[in-house]
Structures are given as structure tokens and as C-alpha cells.
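user: can you give me the structure for this one chain? C-alpha cells are fine.
assistant: on it. calling the predictor now.
[tool input]
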Amino acid sequence: MAPKDLLLIIVERWSKVWREVVASTIAAMLAWIIARQIFGHTHPIFASVIAIVCLAPGIPNHSKQAWSLVLGVATGILVGEIALMLPNPVLRMGFGLFVSMMAASSFGLGPILPIQAGVSALLVLTLGPETAGYVRMTDVVVGTVIGLIGGKFLPVRTKSPSVT
């Protein structure tokens, strides 16, 4: 492939995603600022991550993605909290991950939900509910609200941008 052809392909790909990249960037910065200034989170990484995941290029429906994230995180935190009652750390991990992802899969809203449920349960089990429970859920709500607002200004895609 000639360098000129490769450059044209890259420019075409950029032209398809630049609005979502800009929206994700702005949303991540706003979510960070809000979670830090209003809720006092020292490192509100989850607020920014959720905003990016809500608005990332190629997401066919930003609103569905946002609500799936909230439901997945809430499921994972709840199951992680229950799993903390088990005495054995390995059993806790196995139970927490399996049950959170199975429960989240029950909703049938796509892969992001069980992924977030598993990650959230894992965070609760490793970092503890004080760090990964309430703080993470607050950050998720902030990031989701920013993502939902940002998603209102982006077109709904019928299919993902081409990566060929």
C-alpha cells in the first residue's frame, strides 16, 4: 500500500470519528472536574473513564451504553459487597466475579454490562467497599450524566465506523 493511500484511509477514518473523540475528551474533563470539585474525589478516574466509554467512537447508542454502565457497576458493587462476607479470599473472588457477570448478563443489554459488573466486583473485593463502592458509584453517575448530555449532541449510529 502506498503511503498516500494509507494517509487517505487514516484521514477518512478520522473524519468519521472526530466528533465523538472531541465529545469524549470534553466529557472526560468535565466529569473529572465535577467529581473533584463537587464530590471531593481526589482522583476521579472512574468519572472520566465512564464519560469516555459512554461517548467513544463506534458506540451505536450512547444512551443505552450509559445506562448499561450504571447497571453493570451497580450490580458488581452489590455482588462484591455480598461476596465480602465469604471467609476465603479465593472463594470470594470466584463467587463475586461469576455471580456479578451472570446477573448482569441476565439483563441482555450487551457486553459492556457484564464487563462492568465483573470489574466493579473485582474492585470492591480488592480495594474494599470504601474505595470502590460509594466513590466508584458516584463517579459512575457523574460520568454517565455527562455522557448522556454529550450523547444528545451526537448522531445515533446505525453501524460502527469502518476500520478497514
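assistant: here you go. The helical segments are 3-37, 45-55, 62-83, 89-105, 112-127, 129-132, 134-151. Residues 17-151 form one domain.
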